[in-house]
User: Which sequence fits this backbone?
């Protein structure tokens, strides 16, 4: 069999997914100062769209000025009608019509630009958060629920966007309040003071409302994240749920979570019902006082009828911000809580990053060294303790050990998913902490025991590491992985959509596509982490025959349980007590190492005969047969 023609792979930038960016990056990020309030931290992103903000604000001010000018013009119209001045009445009527038309035009522009501002910031915030999530280390995802991340990246960002879209519109009402008050003071200061009398009470009730809603909003957002986690786990784990007939139990769990959200929402509704009517109604007391006091002044002839009517209109304008105050306060508290939850992610510092002096692996040879490596997922329990192993370029090494011995941890440290607690991992003599992550992961290719496929076509999944690969290169990789046959039998061949996580395919089919995906990337160091665990023995043998040639001049690390997979290796390394307990050929270890024999015997007992099915994919009794990946 001939080697796969994958063409030139390495690029000067060591960009495995070498595609041209179609969209510009966000123009700004959040303020890194954690001591600042959430709006101040978000301000750099808003300021980056200053043109949209300025146009929206300017047109809004003009629209409000025209709106506030209408009652003043109406005052002149009423007074002109009372005095019988028809010419003045026509002029004022024309002005009011012009004010209305201008209010319509500038108000429309204002709304367009302010909503555009909200959507722009939301888009930037999503892009920044996703980019940051891709840089966070595996340790972050080990301790974080996926539903919580999804909730923060969706509903929390939407809460911020809603405030940014509607907040400026509501702020304009505050400006209208100021303008109206200015006209009122200009017309009659004492009457204006009467209209303002209830405002201290409005402020006090608004403060009480805010103090109750903010903590409830935070709890609501957190409980919505819990609900999203339950839904995510039940959708992704539907095979486990159904296999144990646990639907009713999961529905009850979802119901309890929904009831917890219901409680906080009801409490927020109670707060709104208690305080909003007071906030909205107190300004109307000012209306009554203006009508009473202004009526006396009009009867005494101190003010004209037109002035009294204008004052009544301005008092209504004063009430608008207060009628919306409840919504503003609630949305503001929700947005504030949501922003804080977003910032918690953006403030998370990645643990695995390139060092300032990191260099690219330019021409990898494939030498791998582990030197006195100590590592544990928690400080109290080391998984590897004094692990030392030297692998020559082009050598094929199988790592064997009992469950939990740290076999997969070895390859995770090699690809720098985690950093060692002590010791070092080296590739071609360079510590992996001193080389760039992109070039390291371009050099070390992984085929995991639980292959993940994207909801895309078979072609796109195989070409994931090389999006520019031609169809012939993709087919060649699929043929080497013994996947071409079943792919051609799919409805649309290589253009068939595999569905979420590839669950429309069997476990063995997914594994073969994952193998093809890694082979197409053509890494210098190939890691097979139990990569043929769900594949029929006959198909596995054909894959091994292809791999024998493909592994030539390529360092290969095989995490294996099956004897057939171990046979691919030139040397077998046995793990025990977090370190290498023995090494040699399979025959040497079989003759001299009881621990090695025990490991093989245990896994042999766990295996079941291959399922002779149409697609040739058997399942192992101990792993794939009862795993979510089995089909």
Assistant:
């Amino acid at each position: 069999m001939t080697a796969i023609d994958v063409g030139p792979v390495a690029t000067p930038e060591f960009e495995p997914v070498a595609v041209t960016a179609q969209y510009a990056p966000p123009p700004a990020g959040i303020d890194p100062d954690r001591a600042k309030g959430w709006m101040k931290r978000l301000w750099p992103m808003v300021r980056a769209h200053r043109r949209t903000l300025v146009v929206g604000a300017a047109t809004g001010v003009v629209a409000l000025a025209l709106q506030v000018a209408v009652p003043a013009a109406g005052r002149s119209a009423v007074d002109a009608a009372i005095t019988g001045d028809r010419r003045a009445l026509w002029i004022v009527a024309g002005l009011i019509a012009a004010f209305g038309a201008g209010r319509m035009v500038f108000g429309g522009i204002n709304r367009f630009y302010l909503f555009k501002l909200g959507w722009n910031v939301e888009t930037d915030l999503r892009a920044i958060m996703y980019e940051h999530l891709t840089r966070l280390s595996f340790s972050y995802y080990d301790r974080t629920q996926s539903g919580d991340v999804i909730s923060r990246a969706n509903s929390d960002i939407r809460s911020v966007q809603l405030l940014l879209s509607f907040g400026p519109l509501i702020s304009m009402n505050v400006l209208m309040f100021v303008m109206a008050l200015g006209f009122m003071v200009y017309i009659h200061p004492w009457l204006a003071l009467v209209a303002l009398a209830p405002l201290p009470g409005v402020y006090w009730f608004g403060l009480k409302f805010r103090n109750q809603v903010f903590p409830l909003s935070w709890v609501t957002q957190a409980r919505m994240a819990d609900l999203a986690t339950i839904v995510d786990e039940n959708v992704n784990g539907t095979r486990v749920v159904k296999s144990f007939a646990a639907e009713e139990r999961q529905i009850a769990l979802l119901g309890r979570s929904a009831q917890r959200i219901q409680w906080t929402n009801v409490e927020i509704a109670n707060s709104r019902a208690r305080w909003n009517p007071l906030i909205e109604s107190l300004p109307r007391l000012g209306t009554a006082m203006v009508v009473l006091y202004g009526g006396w002044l009009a009867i005494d002839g101190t003010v004209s009828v037109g002035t009294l009517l204008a004052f009544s209109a301005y008092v209504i304008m004063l009430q608008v911000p207060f009628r919306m105050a409840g919504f503003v306060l609630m949305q503001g508290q929700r947005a504030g809580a949501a922003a804080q939850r977003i910032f918690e992610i953006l403030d998370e510092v990645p643990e695995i990053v390139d060092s300032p002096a990191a260099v690219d692996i330019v021409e990898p040879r494939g030498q791998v060294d582990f030197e006195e490596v100590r590592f544990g997922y928690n400080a109290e329990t080391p998984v590897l303790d004094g692990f030392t192993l030297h692998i020559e370029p082009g050598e094929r090494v199988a790592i064997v050990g009992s469950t939990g011995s740290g076999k997969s941890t070895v390859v995770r440290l090699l690809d720098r998913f985690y950093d060692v607690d002590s010791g070092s991992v080296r590739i071609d003599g360079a510590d992996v902490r001193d080389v760039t992550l992109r070039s390291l992961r371009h050099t070390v290719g992984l085929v995991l025991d639980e292959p993940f496929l994207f909801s895309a076509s078979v072609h796109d999944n195989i070409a994931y590491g090389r999006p520019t690969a031609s169809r012939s290169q993709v087919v060649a990789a699929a043929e080497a992985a013994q996947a071409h046959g079943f792919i051609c039998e799919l409805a649309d061949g290589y253009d068939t959509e595999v569905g979420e996580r590839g669950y429309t395919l069997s476990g063995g089919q997914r594994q073969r596509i994952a193998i093809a995906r890694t082979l197409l990337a053509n890494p210098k160091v190939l890691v097979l982490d139990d990569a043929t665990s769900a594949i029929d023995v006959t198909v596995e043998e054909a894959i091994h025959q292809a791999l024998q040639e493909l592994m030539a001049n390529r360092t290969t690390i095989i995490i294996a349980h099956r004897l057939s997979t171990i046979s691919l290796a030139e040397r077998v390394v046995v793990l025990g007590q977090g370190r290498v307990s023995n090494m040699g050929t399979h025959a040497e270890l079989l003759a001299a190492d009881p621990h090695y024999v025990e490991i093989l015997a245990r896994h042999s007992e766990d295996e079941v005969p291959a399922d002779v099915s149409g697609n040739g994919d058997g399942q192992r009794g101990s792993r794939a047969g009862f795993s979510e990946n089995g089909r």
User: Anything to note?
Assistant: The beta strands are 368-375, 384-391, 396-400, 422-427, 430-431, 444-447, 525-529, 555-559, 571-576, 579-584.
